[in-house]
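Hi support team,

I submitted a single chain yesterday and got back a structure, but I'm not sure I'm reading the token output correctly. Could someone confirm the output below corresponds to the sequence I sent? I've pasted both exactly as they appear in my results page.

Thanks,
R.
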Amino acid sequence: MSLPPQKASELKEIIHQQLLKMDVHGRIREVLAETIREELAPEHQQLSTEDLIKALRQRGIIDDVMKELKFLSDVNETERTSAPKPSTHFAEREPPVLKKTNIDPTRRYLYLQVLGGKAFLEHLQEPEPLPGQICSTFTLCLHFRNQRFRSKPVPCACEPDFQDGFLLEIHKDSLGDGSKMVDATTMLSICDPVHMVLIKTDTFGETTLVASYFLEWRSVLAAENGITNVAVELLGVGTESKVSVGVLNIRLEMYPRLNKTLSSEITSTQFTLERQKTAEKERLFLVYAKQWWREYLQIRPTHNARLVKIFAQDENGVNRPVCSYVRPLRAGRLLDTPRQAARFVSVLGHERAPVIGGGGGKQELWCTRLAFLCRNKGDCEDHANLLCSLLLGFGLEAFVCVGTKAKGVPHTWVMTYGSDETITFWESLTGHRYLHRPINPDDPPLVEQPKPLYPYRTIGCIFNHQKFFGNCQPSDAVEVCVFDLHDESKWKPMSGEAIKSVCPPGSTSSVPPFPPLCASTIDAAVTSNEIEVQLRILVSEHRKDLGLSTVWDDQLSYLLSPALAAYELERTMGVSAGNEEFQDAVRRAVPDGHTFKGFPIHFVHRNARRAFATCLRSPFCEEIICCRGDQVRLAVRVRVFTYPESACAVWIMFACKYRSVL
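Hi R., thanks for writing in. Yes, this is the structure output for that exact sequence:
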């Protein structure tokens, strides 16, 4: 193929400009000088063109040039200077298509590549998935300095085929002059690790936390050419935190390359000093906590039986102060009100930590926030910690409460302390709110006492990111508890300075940084429609098995929408609205002599078959789905309400109308 002379000269000019922009000539001169110095000094032989090209290829310069020389007809200058990249990176399932990324030339970046895994022995017998077959997948989630990333899902295997790259921005304005390129010494002082969480998703969409790992990336600062390869051994979680689950091959690379690398002695000395400093702070806090606990027990011997929790184990089996699990979290524009935050936390799945074997004992595992959010479910402690963090972010004085429910079952919930000393309990698993009015046991019998509506029985301690109080009132029953936190005869406080020494931002401790929330990736309208279509098929098949025909009434289905919106509003804000209009519309749609029946139900998953099986277990719903009579018309409406982290509330309403035949 030959180009016209005008086009050829135009092409040459573009290539020339690109080579100048990349300073390829300067880089070739450096390589030439280095090659002559390294390879030709002893022999003084002639250097051929092939030798030079080989040297350029080895150093990746030819690859860099070829990557840059892309002629994109649909990318104009406005797109190149568009808004900064989103904090979350979701890779596609399709073969990767190289996209242009907005890179600030005055910033430092860490390019982290995951180049496959090995020794995931639990999947040794896993068969190769057939094309199009649904199989279990691994997904790797990363968090680094307020940036979140997610790999594309790969089939579970003994050697999972992870092939993903993530561009992590290191430089921040907070490190000084925003226009100044940060150097290796300054980067050495950034002790934030790269938090990596491996999630397994089974064929039913259920997620499992496989591993949680903190990657020390600063070893790349001492690496030659600014590139280092690391084999990361992932350990299990909970009771399996000492068992290896697999190895990830990771390549770290600095962009732009460092002019001057650090020596390995400097980096190792820095790591040792940081570990020693953290260990000393944690040791001093442990000494203080033991002294505090001894003093607490001396107040009353029965305090030994109260649920006063100072430390909790995370998914890696590391004991951390409970205050370190809470930190003010601002949700940006993803959540507008504290009650909406409570609703969001309640639609995240609830699942107890798995226990191997019987005995009925509760395995306690307080997840780091990234592990909880990526898995999209956790125990009551995870929900309470997240809700407390969000309420603190909204400017409320919030605390996590540790106590028991009915039958002495350990439980955690959230409390807000109003400026007018109003005490409100927030149940993180349901989003319900309860006002607390203490019963005075010294009142005469004729004095009417408030009846508590909350399910909580006892309370041992409360805490947030700055404060910790142990309940030292004569009774730990919630209904008689007085929340006068300034009265040390009722609540024994911990030293704020001691808490600050081991909880960020006042410490350089081993506590992992908290990730920001991510916007939902679910299209509410499309998902609602998909679930509704699947439910119609399931209902029709079920009725066919019973020998019944199915006629759908689309208009009646549509009329159910306001009711579902009202139910979600009531769950979120606690107010009911629009019921009169819904009832009026239904009366108009149902002719005289006909009967209308409706059944709403709520789920926090999007599995239509599972939802249908649950609905059939309700006699009211089964009566509607299996309705017999004259002129039977069925209706179903699904409404998906999306929340951050792709959490969702799914409302389904089945209805029918038929002529009553006596």
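A quick pointer for reading it: DSSP finds 17 helices and 23 strands in the chain. Let us know if anything else looks off.

Best,
Support desk
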